[in-house]
Amino acid sequence: MIKAGIIGATGYAGGELVRILANHREVGIVWYGSRSYIDKKYYQVYQNMFRIVEDVCKDDNLAELAEQVDVIFTATPQGFLAGLLTEEILSKVKIVDLSADYRIKDVNVYEKWYGIEHKSPQFIAEAVYGLCEVNRSQITAQTRLVANPGCYTTCSILTAYPLVKEGVIDVDTLIVDAKSGTSGAGRGAKVPNLFCEVNENIKAYGVASHRHTPEIEEQLSYAGNCEVVINFTPHLVPMNRGILVTEYAKLKRNIDGTLLSWEEIRAVYDKYYADERFVRVLDKGICPETKWVEGSNYVDINFVIDERTGRVIMMGALDNLVKGAAGQAVQNMNLLFGLPEDEGLELVPCFP
Amino acid sequence: MIKAGIIGATGYAGGELVRILANHREVGIVWYGSRSYIDKKYYQVYQNMFRIVEDVCKDDNLAELAEQVDVIFTATPQGFLAGLLTEEILSKVKIVDLSADYRIKDVNVYEKWYGIEHKSPQFIAEAVYGLCEVNRSQITAQTRLVANPGCYTTCSILTAYPLVKEGVIDVDTLIVDAKSGTSGAGRGAKVPNLFCEVNENIKAYGVASHRHTPEIEEQLSYAGNCEVVINFTPHLVPMNRGILVTEYAKLKRNIDGTLLSWEEIRAVYDKYYADERFVRVLDKGICPETKWVEGSNYVDINFVIDERTGRVIMMGALDNLVKGAAGQAVQNMNLLFGLPEDEGLELVPCFP
Amino acid sequence: MIKAGIIGATGYAGGELVRILANHREVGIVWYGSRSYIDKKYYQVYQNMFRIVEDVCKDDNLAELAEQVDVIFTATPQGFLAGLLTEEILSKVKIVDLSADYRIKDVNVYEKWYGIEHKSPQFIAEAVYGLCEVNRSQITAQTRLVANPGCYTTCSILTAYPLVKEGVIDVDTLIVDAKSGTSGAGRGAKVPNLFCEVNENIKAYGVASHRHTPEIEEQLSYAGNCEVVINFTPHLVPMNRGILVTEYAKLKRNIDGTLLSWEEIRAVYDKYYADERFVRVLDKGICPETKWVEGSNYVDINFVIDERTGRVIMMGALDNLVKGAAGQAVQNMNLLFGLPEDEGLELVPCFP
Amino acid sequence: MIKAGIIGATGYAGGELVRILANHREVGIVWYGSRSYIDKKYYQVYQNMFRIVEDVCKDDNLAELAEQVDVIFTATPQGFLAGLLTEEILSKVKIVDLSADYRIKDVNVYEKWYGIEHKSPQFIAEAVYGLCEVNRSQITAQTRLVANPGCYTTCSILTAYPLVKEGVIDVDTLIVDAKSGTSGAGRGAKVPNLFCEVNENIKAYGVASHRHTPEIEEQLSYAGNCEVVINFTPHLVPMNRGILVTEYAKLKRNIDGTLLSWEEIRAVYDKYYADERFVRVLDKGICPETKWVEGSNYVDINFVIDERTGRVIMMGALDNLVKGAAGQAVQNMNLLFGLPEDEGLELVPCFP
Fold first, then answer.
1. Mind listing the pLDDT tens digit for each residue in D19-30?
2. Residues of A in contact with B49 (CB under 8 A)
3. Which of A295, B46, C266, D296 sits at 20 to 30 Å (Cα–Cα) from D81?
4. Which pairing describes strands B94-97 and B203-204: parallel, antiparallel, or unpaired?
5. Nearest CB to D352: which of C12, C293, C352?
């Protein structure tokens, strides 16, 4: 049995890790870290876990934790892990970090967008960006540190990845309009996240300034082997879970001026995703809906070609707490320990 | 592998059966019956099942189905199964009926409250009322027909059962005020179930006339060994899943006029539920919330004593599609086939 | 033009006062009190008021305010007004208090249920309980202090009032099961009021201990001329606005053992409400829904007789921010200044 | 008193017309047309109007109606009015048509996108496109037929109009990503509009094929004096009311390659909207939210410049049933009859 510890176990992403790992056959959680609820029973914070988890919450002691477990999940604010990580810790334990601390290779970009100093940039190079469908080969028994991708990021990248990789679209025209449920805002007690403020409302936020922008750009730049600069606009939707992205880009034209056919673009998607366990490219004409992936680790993707404008409209949907956070973290952990990639992730989407 | 067929597989309860059985280790669905969608891929009706279920929907042919499977789930309108059931069918296959056709022992009561003629009353006596926690001993390999309880009913009965059974409350004062999510209304295209009609709204309906009333009364009458006549008032709540019941009754007083203590009433609950896998009596002071059981087969129960009025307020919460329908149906099936009662039902509630 | 000041103008009830008074022909707001947002433009707190209100928020200076305005609305926490009120202030200005400070005549009851010391009990006797439909004759140009009723209270009392007043029901059996939208919980940044905690959920809270209980009991005791002790159970519903109460009581029987007829009970309601501008007793068979009164000052009421149990089930619905708070406060102000009772309150409910 | 008739009075837009006109000082409704509910009391369809509207619903007899009223609102399906309109009718009565029948000047475009034959194209030229802020001068006492703009269209056009009109953006790069509440889908009983299908879900629909596309394109083409072809992608959001559009376009660059400044673009908006009663260009940094305009006739607009991509992100929000339908229809009617443009439309947005 692999022993796991969670730091930040009482946030929404931490709670989802606990839910998923509760049915994982090879892993047991031995440390529920939550500075806010030390010595409180975990189920008293999340009553859904009553009679399922009997443990009490413990302090966020990374060093001590590294002695006791095989893998640590950090579902913590930006800067937390960067401020504590040491070579000694990494020599003892694998870490899957759900924060942004090691996602961006250029520390200057990180510091600019996040507005904080990075305290341990020496580990950035080593960290593997844990987007399994893209970087699977790098997530192995030798990997010590996985930077688990952001929720918006996972959805935005996977939706466009094959078309960028194959050079099918003009990346200078790429626009990502994203819509997220409210759990992505976390469990902090803030007025803008109150029920009455979110319910019956939709708004954009972080326009031209959201922190997931450089993360998307970096990964798509690797894919396209060119610099990608995009507009990314997140919106807050009155629902608990789910991210939907709608992406727009000009299709490159054939030499004769025609556009790629639907079948040709579909083939590009299939080249990368036909064998992927958790990416479902939908049947022609079906638009992804967040409800169809709720509670599961799936990403649903599809596209429409608009002959009138020469653009392709790509759409992707996932559950921000599963494939966008805890589920992908478990997927990464499975890869780290050589387990079947879908162990614990045989989650069937729940409808309605 | 036990072979199962579902009639009414594309209603919400049918869909939940498919979701639950998808992860059941001993059962496989071989017949997705849906008169409305014959020959259509099941996943085209419920896209959450894309890449999980490849089968097409078939007609509702009960007789043919009885030849092919070991167990049939009927998630059908009232009167459907009663109109088709025969001794020959029952001799070949076990049936778990999610409709009300065989729940009420007195056919006159059924016909009065449901307003339809019962076409096969000869099977009523044989049918076992499948409230597992109460009637477990009667649900065995010999049982042919299980009447799966209603959603409101399951919640209402289990919340009060121990106190009625032990004669702790005055049943003549029992009132059940129930609140349900909207999936209980089914997937029929009706104006009152439209998003804009349900959202931002709450109302009572079926006041003093809801069909689950006699079912609750009958079962509590067996428990209390006396005639129970109650007020049951359902309300429609703008959420997908979940039932909450708030029940009121006068506590019987001790000879000296005092009320039972909290500990004494708790002991009554524990007598019946301490070892139950799916009934969670919460810690003192914690009120059940539907969100804490969502997606799972749990019923959460608790109570408060009001010394001022001499009443006990009992509260219960469950997911109407799981413990209130498909989950309990699977629990019954597990009992029918001698499987572990929680096989396929190790569902951890999903929050948020 | 009557000059009004609001203390607590940036809470939800305060914001609703601003919305309603914006279209009031006889009143202008000259003081937007909000300790949290001093010197900030009011519309920067509530962007719906952009281009409608240009004023900045001011401190909560009751004494200074009394010099400047004709009427003060206090939409403040319990204890605030009681801690500041003086004879001098009351000699200068009329006050409509939306808090509970002067609602309960017995200061001991107030202090027990609210858990705070009352700092100015000398004004309790003078205060008029501002339930207009019941106490209209006491709300006059001579009245200095109006205790505006609570939201649950207004709905609970008005729904049962005629039957209690006329002695039609056995008050010892009266139970009030109430359901409220989330704006009733206020705009405080607390985890239980976050979108993800409230959405897709329903729960009871304050069971047998909610502070509106003694207020309901006191007023119904006056009506029935007897001591009324009830069970009152509030529930939190995932919607912004609206309160629905479902009330249960045994009907007293005629000497021959029969129950009152529907027409007789309807006549009792009509006796009190037929001429009321804001109370709508619905047609037979129609259950009140919160959506039908949203944004308006109406209370919708109806009842069902259950011959089986001998109980009457009464139902009432209102908008907790309008008739349950700001609307009723304006109705009281209209009475205080001899204006038409519905001035500014010709609000047509908004659907959907 | 101007006499008005409504055909389609029991749809959501029709109901909103009734709500708004209830407080209009110069107009009275004398005909509530609803083929589905003939002879039924109007309030029995919409209980919010109980005690406010006593009339019964009548048949949709356009010719008879033309004899009785001064203005007809048609809130009817596409093709209805086109199939019945005659010169005789138009000679007797003014018509504000909330359908698409006379919005598009090129009948071929109409027939292609709507898939129906236009039965009275002879009136298209005469019809004025009733986007008041753009075409006010054409909506006069002489106007007989107003084509009231679509909900998505009003929001999409007004948000981009000044920048297109002044040639500030490259219209070939214009993309409109729109999000709508569910009342826009109407009151038809269809499975996709059921509460459980919409709630906790977001999806795109009508991708590259939605009927509002050519309407937006035509109007923006007039504004820009060039052919505008756009991508327009609507999304369904789990809320009752509200449309938010997020629009993307490349800013044209100055000769020196620099972008227009925020102040310059703001000045362009102010040129067209500074004096508009119902268009609110928000303070810098404030993103429009649908909640802030709910129930009112406002359109809230703002923009962000992204120096990195050279794009401007424009955002607009309105209430689809008010400024997007009934409110704008009343605004048009006010213009037709020389009334103050905001008569009956002094609606303060309701929050929360």
1. 999 999 999 999
2. 348-349
3. D296
4. unpaired
5. C12
